[in-house]
Amino acid sequence: MDQVYMDVPAVRDMAKNFQTISEVLKAVDKALEAITAFLKATAFIGLVGGTAVIQFIEMLRPHIQDKADKCEELSQDLDASVDAFERGDQQGATKFY
């Protein structure tokens, strides 16, 4: 029977890194949301270039949100895989095969 090995600290670090990336992307999204709100407010007083920036930001934000969600999911999946490995749950430990 083949033996399964996992470098648990390395996988936990990967999970932590993905969680950090997710948090940074969510902070970027919030900043872009604030910038968009500011630009929308100033667009009413004549800053025409702001509307182009608003459109660009609004096009960009869904992609940032998606990547943040995917990084958070990867972080959770990695943690769950390590937990399953430590419990000896082979089905959960092989989630990434």
What this model shows, in words?
With 97 residues, the chain is mainly α. It has a single domain, classed as Helix Hairpins. 82% of the residues lie in helices and 0% in strands. The protein is built from 3 helices and no strands. It has helices at 8-43, 48-87, 90-93. The chain is rod-shaped. It starts with 7 loop residues before the first helix and ends with a helix. The model has no long low-confidence stretch (mean pLDDT 86).
Q: Architecture in CATH?
A: Orthogonal Bundle
The number of helical elements comes to 3
Helix % is over 70%
| Poorly predicted parts | none
Largest sheet: none
Question: Roughly how many Å apart are the termini?
Answer: 17 Å
CATH class division: Mainly Alpha
The average pLDDT score comes to: 86
Number of strands: 0
* Count of spatially separate domains: 1
Q: What structural category characterises the helix and strand content?
A: mainly alpha
- What's the CATH topology label? Helix Hairpins
Question: Over the alpha carbons, how many angstroms does the gyration radius reach?
Answer: 20 Å
- What is the H/E order? HHH
Q: What spatial form do the alpha-carbon principal axes imply? A: rod-shaped
Percent of residues in β-strands: under 5%
Short description:
With 97 residues, the chain is mostly helical. Helices cover 82% and strands 0% of the residues.
